[in-house]
Amino acid sequence: MSGLDLTFVNWDIISNFVAKGFIFSVQLTIVATLGGIFFGTILALMRLSGNKALMLPATFYVNGMRSIPLVMVILWFFLLMPAIIGRPIGAELSATITFVAFEAAYFSEIMRAGIQSIPRGQVFAGQAVGMTYSQNMRYVVLPQAFRNMLPVLLTQTIILFQDTSLVYAIGAYDLLKGFVTAGKIYGRPEEAYLLAAVVYFVICFGLSALVKRLQARIAIIR
Amino acid sequence: MTWEWQFFLNDDGSGRTYLQWMIDAWGWTLAVAGASWVVAVSVGALMGTLRTLPNSPWLVRLGNAWVELFRNIPLLVQIFLWYFVVPKVIPAMQGLPGYVLVVAALGFFTSARIAEQVRAGIQSLPKGQRYAGMAVGFTTVQTYRYVILPMAFRIILPPLTSESMNLLKNSSVAFAVSISELTMFAMQAQEETSRGVEVYLAVTALYAVSAFAVNRIMAFVERRVQIPGFIVAGGTGGGH
Fold first, then answer.
1. Could you give the residue ranges of the DSSP H alpha helices within chain A?
2. What is the rounded CA–CA span in Å between residue B63 and residue B53?
3. For residues A80 and A90, what is the distance between their CA atoms, to the nearest angstrom?
4. In a domain, B220, yes or no
5. Does the residue A5 lie in any domain?
6. Which of B73, B91, B172 minimises the CB distance to A197?
7. Residue A128 lies inside a defined structural domain of this protein
8. Domain residues for B53?
9. How many domains is chain B partitioned into structurally?
């Protein structure tokens, strides 16, 4: 082992550099998950609607997003957002909008699978008791689809959390950037990367262990 | 807004046009993705197989640890680890070019996902397949080589296809350590020419074309190795 020295780490580094980035990464993950599930569900309903005017644009959007690297999508939004909104916006806001738009495509695939996993009889039962389409979705189909897909949705959220590190491409200040900045200022970049890896690992490993336990519980209920 | 594609024929300052630069960058993208794919599939197949061995708990644990380690750290962080930290800790690796380190990072990162698919594929086979191998006197290695793995690989081809497309898209993260692949080209050419929309459109199209090509190649392989009467369940690919 040559030259790794972790003694420089202290509370000041964490509170001055890392905490700010950590908060942004978590915030971005939560907003992108909730926004992504919301718009993703709408996209999934459009694709399953049977109406070509709704199906085609939704399919085009989802397949388009899924065939482009996330880094390119981040760069695209960062380039175009100021022109669309009409004023310059920060990297953090641009990243948030990008992740909601990008994740919606992935969440829509999960929700589509979830909705399709509900037996047709459930829909017919709703219709038989006189429910409208939106009542049927709201009270019968979507709650079951959500529950069936909960482990997959949460796994996607963990992937999303890892992907937030890619905002590096536009210089937004996230968890990784916090470590990189601290590493630069203290002249210990390698140690900073290593610490970042450990922190990401602990968070993601812990969360996926939780998802596994949840999955086991849901499997028993069914 | 007006289109302006003419700049692609301009000199980029080093004696080649932007178009040539972009083609070179495309080559780097394909080179990184191709080499990483070989690493990912071979290591992923090995680790996934280890995780299903019947009487070797330590090899199973090794395979599981491998998957958890490489799956729970963001790819960008892993690339930084390989590029900056590994050469510092292991002096023998200091002379290695960045390309090799990025291939190691992307290959091992993807190997964890492929190992997971291989494990699932092997475990989806009926137990009788393994017993059949034992019954005709095969050793464990022979059972895997002649009975289990040929079936498992056909089963995981659909998810392997989407993982291969993910790998191609993930090669874009190599920009972070200045590999001159497509995303790096996009960022630099955008800055130099101020023609961001045209540059990004061209690069995005090349990524889409490459991903589609990967999809077609894998579909071709799937048809070629198909066994009549052996029905393979379609898999859903997650992640990106």
1. 11-13, 19-47, 52-66, 70-85, 91-116, 120-128, 133-135, 142-163, 175-185, 189-221
2. 10
3. 12
4. yes
5. no
6. B73
7. yes
8. 6-225
9. 1
The pTM of this model reads: 0.89
Domain count across chain A: 1
User: Is residue B128 domain-resident?
Assistant: yes
In a domain, A2, yes or no: no
B207 in contact with A, Cβ within 8 Å: yes
ipTM, interface predicted TM-score of the complex: 0.89
* B235, part of any domain: no
- B72 touches A: beta carbon within 8 Å: yes
Q: Do B183 and A66 touch (CB under 8 A)?
A: no
Q: Do B240 and A163 touch (CB under 8 A)?
A: yes
Render each residue's pLDDT in chain A as its tens digit; 222 residues: 456 777 766 777 777 788 899 999 999 999 999 999 999 999 999 999 888 999 999 999 999 999 899 999 999 999 998 888 888 888 999 999 999 999 999 999 999 999 998 998 999 999 999 999 999 999 999 999 998 899 899 999 999 999 999 999 998 999 999 999 988 888 888 889 999 999 999 999 999 999 989 888 876 555
Please report whether residue A138 resides in a domain.
yes
Whichever domain contains B47, its CATH number is: 1.10.3720.10
How many C-beta atoms surround the C-beta of residue A58 within 10 A? Answer: 20
Distance from CA of B30 to the nearest CA of A (A): 14
Does B233 fall in a domain? Answer: no
Query: Rounded to whole angstroms, how far apart are CA atoms A46 and A57?
Result: 9
